Structure to design on (699 residues):
């Protein structure tokens, strides 16, 4: 794809997103209303996601991303058909894949999640109608994509779900022979919190609370595990205090009660005198890491080496390693992210360590 | 075998209904074990709820690692069992104020499933001196001590089964019961296969994850039958752990049965207060009344399945499904 073509696409895409957000057509407003009325996501989270897109998506950002991803002048994705199997655990969680695909010049086909059936389609409709992205196709049913013969596919899911997904795609001839796959299986994120100066404690705790509770604690960027060189009890109390004063948590989460498994785990904490706090339907406990229980957050006293060892052990299950401010000692060879950006990453963030735009532009070969 | 009378012998009295014995144990532990009382209270289950038909909550076995689970003041002179573990790992510790209860439990327990006096015990495990805090080794030492013939013994690790021991057992008209952890028996089978007498029984005590590779129970048992010339029906299993003072035994079918003072239930991993229907997998929950001075109501980290007759299978460690993140995101057609 030529530089001119790339710029033109970035401009059209940036404009399209802007038009969608300003919503003169009412498409987005209707999608938000339906999403909230059907209790698919919290209104607060939907608006937070939209504000984040508004803040991060501009033609300039898109061009910078394309440059970093080496789209310009490199192997082109034009004439390639890309299937995006969109997740539905967060509002607009497939947004990045849509943008990456359209920026690359590839033909986009989307399987829309039934858990997020209105928000993303409102954008796609806008882009198709007003911005000349005629080659967009999407459906909430894989059957509708039968015979698609896509050259590349992006999806997020558990390792366990992969064989089943592959079987469906094969049965319906949705993928072309030799199609490339970008499979994302990370399920949560980790933080290293060093010993904090007194003046750092409350801000770091507030950032931890935001990283933990935003989007109802769902999504692979959610902080579920932290190692810390700080006093665990003090840090736990600071996080609890920050959560207690967060309007998001107060308005949306505090009225909830623990599900049975977490109630059982909280009782165990009580029994053995383990430090813990209950915040809405979440339990934060000071213990060894325990990543498999939804709604459980663990805070583990230890060193940066302990954190690194845990990261190595978990491998691809961990999406990101956060550190406060993105600065300070960090494990060698690990790309750390600022804790405060856990739920507001740049558009070019890398799910499972792979830049989707770069991957598509390479024809799925990186 | 002489069995001393102990004030809590009601535990082993099969004429008293299990529920009645269980309530007595619950009353005692609820009153004496602060951690368990706190646990029950946090789950809203106390004496009143039990009298109304609720089941006692099952305390995760990790409690033995994180806290002192003993109804009496634990002191260093007490017999204690410790779980195995790697360096730096916290081990479960089970204090045994009255070893006689464990002794009674192991002898009465194995006696329910085997004509025990017909057997000599050959233990292919480390000896008691090397592992004074292993509940399994302590049990085997008791079995060996109890054999007046002197033919029962710990075997040398890394050595073949001594033919003299097999001959001596035959000459004395006794059958051979070969005990060992799974990984030890596999080493023995691979290095020194030998035909055991046809009426011998092998009892593996678990520990499938070897220093070389992980092996399923079926493969393990097939390997043992091939190496020792016995039918599958004579390769049995024992299910026990540091945190329990009773054991379940499985014959060649792989289904474990408990002595009458021990009950197993399969619990919903998402809500351990609830039992799973028969035939469905979940966490193995155990009520072991012999744990009178610690906690009888325990939830293990093992996965299992149970039949309507109470027998159960152990399906390995429970690995929780990953419910976070994106795993449920591709909704079905």
């Amino acid at each position: 794809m030529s530089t001119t073509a790339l710029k033109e696409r970035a401009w059209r895409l940036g404009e399209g997103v802007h038009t969608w957000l300003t919503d003169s057509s009412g498409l987005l407003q209707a999608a938000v209303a339906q999403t909230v009325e059907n209790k698919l996501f919290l209104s607060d989270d939907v608006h937070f996601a939209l504000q984040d897109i508004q803040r991060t998506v501009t033609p300039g950002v898109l061009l910078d991303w394309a440059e970093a991803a080496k789209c310009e002048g490199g192997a082109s994705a034009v004439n390639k058909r890309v299937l995006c199997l969109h997740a539905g655990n967060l509002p607009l969680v497939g947004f990045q894949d849509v943008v990456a695909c359209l920026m690359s010049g590839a033909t986009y086909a989307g399987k829309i999640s039934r858990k997020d059936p209105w928000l993303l389609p409102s954008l796609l409709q806008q882009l198709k109608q007003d911005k000349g992205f005629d080659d967009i196709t999407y459906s909430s049913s894989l059957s509708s994509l039968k015979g698609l013969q896509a050259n590349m596919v992006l999806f997020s899911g558990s390792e366990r779900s992969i064989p089943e997904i592959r079987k469906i795609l094969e049965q319906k001839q949705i993928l072309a022979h030799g199609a490339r796959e970008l499979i994302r299986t990370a399920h949560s994120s980790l933080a290293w919190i060093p010993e904090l100066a007194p003046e750092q404690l409350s801000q770091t705790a507030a950032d931890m609370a935001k990283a933990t509770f935003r989007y109802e604690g769902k999504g692979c960027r959610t902080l579920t595990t932290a190692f810390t060189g700080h006093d665990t009890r003090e840090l736990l109390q600071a996080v609890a205090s920050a959560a207690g004063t967060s309007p998001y948590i107060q308005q949306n989460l505090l009225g909830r009660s623990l599900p049975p498994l977490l109630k059982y785990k909280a009782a165990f904490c009580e029994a053995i005198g383990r430090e813990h706090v209950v915040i809405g339907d979440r339990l934060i406990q000071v213990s060894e890491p325990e990543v498999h229980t939804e709604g459980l957050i663990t805070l583990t006293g230890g060193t940066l080496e302990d954190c690194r060892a845990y990261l190595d052990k978990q491998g691809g299950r961990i999406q990101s390693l956060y550190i406060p401010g993105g600065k300070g000692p960090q494990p060698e060879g690990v790309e750390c992210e600022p804790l405060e950006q856990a739920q507001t990453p740049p558009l070019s963030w890398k799910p499972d360590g792979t830049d989707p735009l770069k991957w598509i532009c390479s024809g799925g070969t990186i | 075998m002489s069995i001393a009378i102990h004030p809590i012998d009601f535990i082993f009295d099969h004429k008293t209904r299990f529920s009645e014995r269980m309530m007595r144990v619950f009353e005692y532990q609820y009153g004496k074990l602060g951690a368990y009382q706190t646990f029950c209270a946090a789950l809203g289950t106390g004496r009143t709820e039990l009298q109304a038909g609720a089941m006692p909550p099952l305390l995760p076995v990790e409690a033995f690692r994180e806290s002192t689970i003993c109804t009496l003041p634990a002191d260093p002179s007490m017999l204690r069992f410790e779980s195995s573990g790697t360096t730096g790992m916290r081990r479960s510790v089970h204090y045994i104020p009255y070893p006689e209860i464990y002794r009674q439990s192991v002898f009465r327990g194995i006696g329910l499933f085997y004509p025990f006096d017909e057997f000599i015990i050959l233990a292919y495990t480390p000896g008691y001196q090397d592992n004074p805090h292993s509940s399994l080794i302590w049990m085997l030492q008791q079995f060996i001590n109890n054999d007046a013939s002197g033919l029962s013994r710990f075997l040398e690790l890394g050595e073949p089964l001594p033919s003299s021991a097999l001959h001596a057992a035959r000459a004395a008209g006794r059958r051979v019961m070969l005990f060992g952890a799974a990984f030890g028996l596999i080493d023995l089978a691979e290095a020194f296969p030998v035909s055991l007498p046809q009426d011998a029984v092998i009892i593996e005590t678990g520990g499938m994850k070897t220093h070389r590779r992980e092996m399923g129970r079926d493969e393990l048992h097939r390997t043992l039958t091939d190496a020792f010339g016995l039918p599958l029906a004579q390769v049995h299993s024992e299910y026990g752990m540091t945190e329990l003072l009773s054991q379940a035994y499985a014959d060649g079918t792989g289904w474990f049965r408990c002595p009458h003072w021990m009950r197993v239930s399969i619990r919903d991993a998402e809500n351990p207060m609830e039992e799973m229907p028969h035939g469905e997998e979940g966490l193995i929950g155990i009520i072991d009344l012999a744990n009178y001075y610690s906690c009888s109501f325990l939830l293990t980290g093992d996965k299992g399945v149970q039949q309507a007759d109470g027998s159960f299978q152990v399906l390995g460690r429970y690995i929780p499904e990953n419910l976070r993140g994106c795993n449920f995101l591709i909704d079905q057609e």
